[in-house]
Design a protein that fits this description.
Rossmann fold; 8-stranded mixed beta sheet; 12 helices; 17% strand; binds NADP nicotinamide-adenine-dinucleotide phosphate
């Protein structure tokens, strides 16, 4: 078991998640045995995802075997997260890679009037920092937390904290997937759970930036490397539902125009977007250098990919970290009772 590298990729059945799996398989030592643990909220999507990765592996000449496993987890449900922790602890004695890729927003559609206005007044901005996606305000999970906060930030953090012994045993690399849309303006420290925000998705990515910035040194003390990345801009399967054939190709066309006029972030394809997350996971870096930076997947005008790093504005990082650490203690307490109850004999 110890010679096998174990990689957990949350939200594997997304454009980015699948391509992280593909690139990790390509970049890892071909002699290594790999186990890819896919996660999804539903079994059919997990199965579909494993089939796609299997197909990809069949096209490679790889002497080391690739095995597959799945984990059903919903990050908006603390009991589900706890269950994921038990499943991982029962099945593995170490984990080598943990990609925090799953994320969700609470979108209710597109403000088409604003979208058209934005596209005509500043097309590059319209496909780089779109403000026309309508997000619902005040949406809570069944656990009573801000839904986007729990799904994108606290849920994954809680699972990571629970599986620290496994990550330590694997001298793991944790890779957080953030976004270019994570500017400080998207977060108010008075609204950590993003319940009053109409940009909760972007706010959650700002929280990811700050949480990483404040916590990577603690992970380092345990021998765990933690990196902050972002995939640039690429076609997202979850956004298709709001587009028809015309708006989809219109958006794609604008993506290519944006790249051609000089945007380095329009990767467009999931494969190129997965460059930075897999780069930080597989680079030979025994000295844990540059963990304070944000590693972005970037593309030149001709489509050639490269890694572009940025500094993070860390103001508020310690406040965010303390808030999230306190919330973890609170949930440890709450879930203690939950576990006791589920173990009571019938
Ligand atoms: N698309 C872009 O241009 C862009 C730009 C910047 C950053 N990103 C980031 O890149 C990552 C991947 O984006 P994407 O567009 O490829 O993803 P996507 O199509 O939106 O898919 C999201 C994935 O997350 C999982 N997920 C959603 N809510 C979840 C929950 N509550 N619990 C557990 N899993 C959940 C879904 O899994 P199941 O449905 O199978 O459960 C799905 O596989 C995200 O972190 C996103 O924020 C994307």
């Amino acid at each position: 078991m110890s010679s096998t590298k174990v990689a957990v990729i949350t939200g594997t059945n997304s454009n980015l998640g699948l391509n992280i799996a593909y690139r990790l398989i390509e970049k890892s030592n071909p002699e290594d045995k790999l186990t890819i643990v896919v996660t999804s909220r539903t079994l059919p999507r997990a199965r579909e995802c494993i089939d796609l990765i299997k197909k990809f592996v069949n096209t490679l000449d790889r002497p080391g075997s690739v095995d597959y496993d799945y984990l059903l987890v919903d990050f908006t449900n603390m009991v589900s997260i706890l269950d994921a922790y038990y499943s991982l602890s029962n099945r593995y004695d170490h984990i080598n890679y943990f990609f925090v890729n799953a994320a969700q927003g609470v979108y209710s559609g597109i403000d088409w009037f604003a979208a058209v206005k934005e596209v005509f007044s500043n097309p590059l901005e319209a496909v780089t920092n779109p403000t026309y996606k309508i997000q619902r305000v005040g949406v809570k999970s069944k656990d009573g937390m801000g839904l986007v906060f729990q799904a994108n930030v606290f849920g994954p953090y809680y699972l990571i904290q629970k599986i620290l012994p496994l990550l330590q045993a694997g001298q793991a690399t944790i890779v957080w997937v953030s976004s270019i849309m994570s500017a400080p303006k998207y977060l108010s420290l008075q609204d950590m759970q993003l319940l009053k925000s109409d940009v909760s998705y972007e706010g959650s990515k700002r929280l990811v930036d700050l949480l990483h910035s404040a916590s990577y040194k603690d992970q380092k003390k345990l021998g765990i490397r933690q990196y902050l990345t972002h995939p640039g801009i690429f076609t997202s399967l979850s956004f298709f539902q709001y587009l028809n054939v015309f708006t989809y190709y219109g958006m794609l066309f604008l993506f290519y125009v944006a790249r051609w006029i000089g945007s380095s972030w329009h990767n467009i394809e999931g494969y190129k977007a997965a460059n930075a997350p897999v780069y930080v996971a597989t680079m030979a870096n025994p000295n844990f250098e540059m963990e304070q930076m944000k590693y972005g997947s970037a593309t030149y005008r001709d489509g050639l990919e490269y890694i572009k790093t940025d500094e993070v504005d860390t103001s508020g990082a310690e406040d965010v970290y303390q808030y999230i650490k306190d919330l973890k203690v609170e949930w440890d307490e709450k879930l203690k009772d939950q576990i006791k109850q589920t173990r009571l004999p019938l």
